[in-house]
TrEMBL record:
Coiled coil regions in record: none
Protein name in UniProt: Stage V sporulation protein R-like protein
Domain SpoVR protein-like N-terminal: 12-348, 482-547
InterPro entries associated with the record: Spore_V_R (IPR007390), SpoVR-like_C (IPR057008), SpoVR_N (IPR056174)
Domain named SpoVR-like C-terminal: residues: 550-601
Amino acid sequence: MTTNYQAQRIADELEEPVREANELARKLGLDPYPVNYWIVDNDEMNQLIAYDGFQERYPHWRWGMKFDRQQKTNQYVGGKAFELVNNDDPSNAFLQESNSLADQKAVITHVEAHADFFANNRWFGLFTGDEPGSSPKAAAMLARHAKTIESAIADTDVERSEVERWIDNVLCIEDAIDQHSAFVHQRIAEEDLDREDIEQALEGLGISDAVRREVFDEEWLEGQREGPSGESFPETPDRDLLAFLREHGKRYDAEAERAREMEPWQRDVLDALRTEAYYFAPQRMTKVMNEGWAAYWESMMMGEEGFADGEEFIDYADHQARVLGSPGLNPYKLGKELWEYLENTENRREVIDKLLRIEGVTWRNFHDTVDLERVRELLEPRAPLDEIRRDRLDELESLGNAVDHDALERARAGGIDVSRYPWKVLSYEGLAERHYSLVKPQNRGVLRRITQADLERVGRYVLDDSLYGSVEEAIADVDRTAGWRRMAEVRTSHNDVTFIDEFLTQEFVDRHHYFTYEYAHATGDYRATSTDATDVKKKLLLQFTNFGKPTIEVHDGNFGNRNELLLGHRYNGVALDIGQAKQTLARIFELWGRPVNLMTIRKEISEKDIEVARRRNREPEPTERGIRIRYDGLEFETTELDEDLTVAIEANDIDYDTKPPEWLA
């Protein structure tokens, strides 16, 4: 465990980097939540990871499982978590005591960017509300939930195992929410007739069991609860299954073999876990954006702005290489590359816009009349900006809004060490010019990749096409902040699905060598199938739409007029794992208390189909068949799905399929 002395020593060492990183982040245009930094040892970090970044959670076995998995991952797989930060106001960031100083600086700059993303992305605002000053207060909320569940466990009338099983039931479908809608606390609808009251009234009448079974049977009682109409509900498919169960569900009483009203503690648990599902949803919806955003600004501050000094830079380069070089679908790498591509394309669009306003230059003759190498030279930062030194401070005076003139005066008086923190004397505009993306060595090909389509797309909106008399005049008017301002706009409004959908282009795919691969039934192995951006995009979007999990909607809470629950799998070309689907239905049954049904579409490929496809060097075409799986608490039944219901769950134009047409043909 970290001793108080060790923690205090490290905290003292990091006091200046924390302060300066926050100031630099704000100079660069970020607006983060305040951040509290904590120093923790390896075991404490593993515990925080298990608790999803918080120090207090409700009692449940899964936290121990996650802790054990994380500990074994560190021990046997290698690597470690450098930091952990949560979405809260203030945010709390936990730094490993074993980090080197270069690592600590890297994670501090990384955290400041995360805190900016939390505070400004509107998908996080769906949970808190977008009103000014609203913030999640997550630590306090999770602590309240912990106490709620602890109280249920402490109740002598309730078995701990019963509480844990109820939690397991809810966690099994914790992603079954409408993450695209603002979070609202669910309130149970007022009912004219409560079933428990009816049952008590019948018992008071002294009616014989025979008459009661004949006249007031289970179906009649259920009908009273749902109202006299017997109509299906909801009117349209509902994605918030947890809210629907909270409002209309019951608990299944195994001893009585029938549904009963939920106990108050059961509704409280369902409320708490649904609230947490909505709280964590934006973090999962923006993983690529958020990690890429943090990696981008960390790299800017640590490398390009020299936050890592000369002795620390090699350690930092190794740190970043390990993070960006992790195998598999790496959200840090993909996100950072997309943000850089967005910045470059917006800066390029701004340059094209100015060049097309030179007298005599049109989108048709652009490549014949404009010297792009000369353009790149003119885009270089003005001389005093690229190397800020104490003996050159007077040269900055003439740079207008590129300079923070108050800070410049303090630097002249010796109050700012510009050899250590040159950025302090610059404004946002000056930093944008100092770090302009199109003149960085790795981006010098961006201007050369200007296509006729790019030129025509910008040129059709250029009306004042004789504004400048030369390339020099046009470039002098280029807004160097265009890329950063566009990045800030996208940071505010997008999530991973919309981010990838809009900005993953063929140019990006070709530049970074992305491709798709699929399992080939004919050969029994995986094959690269496409480098087309549309196919790559579909493959990626599948992994981010609804957190990469099947989308399940409530279609009817009174299916067959028997109070059965009818769910529909929004089929997008990827079939469900039927075994897992049945296990999930069994869990939902305990939350509904009556039979549950699931509609889906099953893919079927026969051995004969595979053999024929193999001989023709093709991939077999599966047969798709709609089915309905029903569970009544005892057994499963699978039947053919009516055609109208099959159509109701099929994907539409806005859903995504992974398989490119005619792949492996």
